[in-house]
Amino acid sequence: MTAPFSSPRSFVFYIVPDFTMLAFTSAIEALRLANAVLGQEVYSWRIASADGLPVRASCGLTITPDNSVTVERALLLTERRPSMIVVCSGWNVEKHVSKSTAAWLRESRKRGIELAGVCTGAYILADAHLLEGKRCTIHWENLPVFAENFGGINCHTGLMESDGGIHSCAGGAACFDMMMHLIGRDFGPKVVSAVMDQAMVDRVRAPTERQRMPLTVKLNSLNPKILKAIELMEEHLSDRLPMEEIAAAVCLSRRQVERLFQTELETSPSRYYLQLRLERARLLVTQSAMQIVEIAVACGFVSASHFSKCYRQFHGISPQETREQRQPSVQMPALRKSHPAGERLHMMPEDELRRVA
Questions:
Q1: What's the chain's average pLDDT?
Q2: Which domain holds residue 300?
Q3: The CATH number of the domain where 332 resides is what?
Q4: N or C end of the chain, less CB within 10 A?
Q5: Biased composition, Basic and acidic residues: where in the chain (predicted)?
């Protein structure tokens, strides 16, 4: 399909305990399929771990790496140096940062090697001080903790980001999208189309597409002004914007915004805003060691007592009880009227809602 590729691109996939298998295999399968449709090995890959020992994924399967970080660092001085290092992580990523890994990644970047973080891999790149002044993204579930730990880093909520030789994606199937963009950069759209045919994928998503649909939204489209209002809310969870300011930003009156939210989401803007803040709070409770009062402030509540009251009214359990019962990963329940705790919040009078929030 193409002339021989004189300089094959090699990848090192660095895996840490509890890494996400879907993200890891999606990336490798994209490279494998590219080799298949091109009829030659234009991409090669190997796997590394911190100590070279087998690593268990979050799904329970174990992968045996080819090298340790020490060996990979030595290979930087040889012809076996990689073209790109892909950091694959998942749950409990903050437990798996290390000085040796950070030093290896920094040295690799200085030598012109591209880096990528998938799923929560951006956390490891940030810990190595490689994302300062760069755009990046991370899985939505880990964004609140990332923002608290690396507040100065420009982290977005899209599927993927590329900035100055450093790439990041939100994980899961988005890894396949990211690799398609990289393969397209190397070989053009015809090869991407052929790989998609092999993988039975109907399209490659754009980097800026949202990781998640807004809360309570079905798969139908929303009014663009509501989406813009929601984006503003998501960007200002700790420093809450007055509803009048949000309305002005989308060129509507407050009354018009309230009518749109009621028509399309069956809730008020104030309730929706509070739901967003409570979702972020639960992620911080379950995935960080922050004190409850710190979480309250980070989510825009005036005091820990107000925060705890709202949290219990919505989730049906206190923040401390949530922390004691937490699991490795917690998918937020859909904020719909049929959810018992959500019903309690939904039925709160608007004046009371303003007081407790």
A1: 87
A2: 224-356
A3: 1.10.10.60
A4: N
A5: 340-357
